[in-house]
Amino acid sequence: MDGVIAGVVATCAPDGTPNVSFLSQVEYVDSEHVALSFQFFNKTHENILAQPFASVCLTDPHTGASYALHLEYLRTETTGPVYVRMKAKLAGVASHEGMTGIFRLRGADIYRVLEIDAAPGSFLPAPPPRRNLLAALRAYTAHVAECGELDELLETTLRDIEALLGIEHAMILMLDTPADKLYAVASRGYESSGAGAEIPLGQGVIGMAAAERCAIRISFTAPEYSYSRAVRESAAQSALARQLETTIPFAGLADPQSQIAVPILAPRGLVGVLYADSDVEMRFGHEDEDALAVLAAALGGAIAALSPASGEPDGVPAPPPRRVTPGTRTVCIRHFAENDSLFVDDAYLIKGMAGAILWMLLEDYVRLGRTEFSNRALRLDPRLRLPDINDNLEARLILLERRLVDRDAPLRLVKTGRGRFCLQVGASFELEHVPRGAQPGT
Amino acid sequence: MPSITTKPRLLDRAIADFIESGEISLYVAGCDTQRRPRATRAFGCCVSPETQSVTTWVSRAAAPALLDDISSNGRLALVASHVETCRTFQLKAVDAEVVPIDSADYARVVAYHDAFIEQTLRMGYPESMLRSMMQYRFDKLAAIVFTPSAVFAQTPGPGAGERLAGEPIP
Questions:
Q1: Does A358 share its domain with A275?
Q2: Residue-level pLDDT, tens digit, chain B, 170 residues
């Protein structure tokens, strides 16, 4: 059903007149159901509302074999995962066919599959699978079991996605629950890390995969699902935010020919999204989607198991404190309470909860000379107001670590043990706090 | 002198040329008495300039039930879509008959098949897959002859579904 060879759907009018028309899309729903794209109020739709039988002819784009699916119409869905998946996929098909603006999904027509006929003939053999995906997933789950920390887990996941699945460009985004957005925390294969780039829920393939908790796969370039626009729009959140350049560019390919986003789910709900793209059309097939979904499920379980809220004790004895040697230069760090954004000598660094965390660490460093910190203490600190559950503190610290490296800031967060880290500084700091409502630079 | 046909003439030259070309993907559909539809790929079309009757060819082995349906009730729909531009027409008929193939059909089926492969190869499809998809055995084909009773524009877009009056073939 991922074929680039268009199929047809045949229906019958109440007076017995057959109708046959080409199809943009047939979506596999489950082993007994498919969905056809409903784009226009046409004869096909009129016919199936009057009597429910339809027949679809499909061609396997690898073997040339053709199949007839005999179907019974059940309902039309205009929301939900199947609709959202088809809408995204159709955008790619429309762009590929030069039909952008013409192909618009009104609904996903859900059918029960009554029977499948394979046309007789001597067809090409099916191509062998590109990889043994089951063996790849087995290896991945074994690697996951060895990861004791979130940053290690994320690195292992992205490394295995490339090494075991052959997917060169991928990233992991975590859900920021109160803000209804996702932020990139780890990536592999891109020019920049993109750590901290934000995607609002519901925007593009990543935002839709998160909002609907379903995998979304696009086989061709789809401009309306590209992230250049999404990222721009996410910047405008308040009057002050508009004045500040606080957008971290999305790392994904600028003009991806294929995209896939898979939700990372844990027992408590959505954790984030695993995203991959490619500059090759039709790079991700059903099997890739299945493999990434299983991988994301293992990842989600592992993230939940590493979460302190799951009962894991936080903190082991820390190694001796590191000697801190501030450099000779003085750096001004400005904090805007409006959105907890931090600027290092006027260059944007980070905002949101990660910004609030770093500001607190810097305050403690400058006022108290403190460089050793524990995740547990951060969780209890009233200045941060972390949510009681799903605080994503570890993910935010990873994001912060990467941003400091990406921006070449004169300070680093360095792990000193499980649930512990220290601040390494390479400059003296002047801290400037800009309260809510104040203008930047005042 | 009586007309050679009393049936309405709906195919203008442009549509006739279009459905006879090798650059289109063709499917034929019919329905049984329970109004259950079936469809199959067709291997070319030929329009008679005198009678406006259309002949198309399908595999007997791929579509035995469809051929039974068409033989029993004469109702047929044929869709023709340009593989590159998506320009599409649908023809309907109520007088379709399944008839044996004859030697004159052979050249037409071969011409359609070869032109279709040539066109789709230009679009980048792999030849082995195309030949697998378009395989047929001439001795296993059936011819279907019908006179269109209605023609519809079906190119995706605002005009899709419009019934075309058509002009008689000169």
A1: no
A2: 444 444 456 788 889 999 999 999 999 999 999 999 999 999 999 999 888 899 999 999 999 999 999 999 999 999 999 988 889 999 999 999 999 998 889 999 999 999 999 999 998 888 999 999 999 888 889 999 999 999 999 887 767 778 885 444 33
Cβ–Cβ of A124/B128 closer than 8 Å?
yes
- Verify that A78 and A147 share a domain, yes or no: no
Contacts of A70 in chain B (CB under 8 A): 36, 38
- Whether residue A292 is found in the same domain as residue A199: yes
Strands A411-417 and A420-425 come out as antiparallel
Mutate to test the interface with B, among A2, A15, A20 (most CBs of B within 10 A): A20
The count of structural domains within chain B is 1
Structure tokens at A10: 């045949």
**Domain boundary pick from A72, A87, A118:** A118
Quick check: B39 and A55 CB within 8 A?
yes
Range of the domain at A334: 330-434
- Closest chain B residue to A65, measured at CA: B133
Question: Is A21's CB within 8 Å of B86's CB?
Answer: no
Give the total number of structural domains in chain A. 3
Interface contact A63-B41, CB threshold 8 A: no
Residue of chain B whose alpha carbon sits nearest to that of A126: B129
ipTM reported for the complex, 2 dp: 0.92
Instruction: Identify whether residues A184 and A140 lie together within a single domain.
Output: yes
Phi-psi region of A175 (alpha: psi -120 to 50; beta: other; left: phi over 0): beta
Q: Is residue A3 part of a domain?
A: no
Q: How far apart are CA B115 and CA B147, in angstroms?
A: 25
| Integer Cα distance of A360 and A393 in angstroms | 14
* Residue A113: φ, ψ to 5°: -85, 115
Range of the structural domain that residue B142 is part of: 13-154
